[in-house]
Amino acid sequence: MKFLNKENGITKMYVQLKDISFLLHSNVKVPKSIYMAVLDDSVPVNEHKSTDFYTYTAEKDIEFLSGLDFIVDYKELRSLEPGELKMMMNDIDDEIRDNATAYDTLPADQKRDKSYYYRIEQLDYKRKSVKEIHDALVGKISLELPSVPDSDGFILDSDPVFLVAQGIDHDAILSYRKDGKEIEPEDQIPEALIQMGLSISIADQREDGLEIGAIETTKTLSKDGKYHITTYNVKKPQKEKKPVDNSLVAKLKKVLGI
Predict the structure, then answer these.
(1) Which end of the chain is more exposed for a tag (fewer CB within 10 A), N or C?
(2) Rg (CA), the chain
(3) Are residues 58 and 159 in the same domain?
(4) CB-based contacts of 127: which residues, under 8 Å, 6+ apart?
């Protein structure tokens, strides 16, 4: 998956390593700059996980990656309901079948054309990515997203040292120093601002129609030591079961001769 984000005035395209790997094994003509970003990285490829993200800032690279519809945009899909994502998967299934049917009806001398095969491969890859986001949304899996403030989210700046912002995962609130330095043990994390950020984020979910129940939070530090991350998990309230009216059950049994 991919997404665009603006940081310190620079537009960045984040793309997962597995997407770049898929590209290099597809029939798509890939600009040299796309795979050179992986080869030139200070961390060897074999030490990365397939879900790790690479960033691109060159306008031509961003334009190229934005045009690939089979690498899904996380930001475009994260606000959809599970049912909407399922409908999207169904639409992709239909498109796969249409391409398979079109290939089957080709005259024998044209079956060497692999364009249908490659398109089906792309659509299947896209479907898996949509399912991944769906499964994360319903709590089956968790996505490992970059620990960076979302340029499309909110930012709170009333603390003299720290900024508090919404993460790419909107269930994460990031606190980080205004000077960009690593967080030190003696730093005073702005808990009041974090609570305000949590309130804003949860209020957004209420506006989206989510029924709010218990809220659990966890706190971690990013790998680079620059972000204090507060992640929250909203649990839907359990609906109380109405007590069974034993007198009605008894009457029903009597009518049925049980």
Answers:
(1) C
(2) 24
(3) no
(4) 89, 92, 93, 96
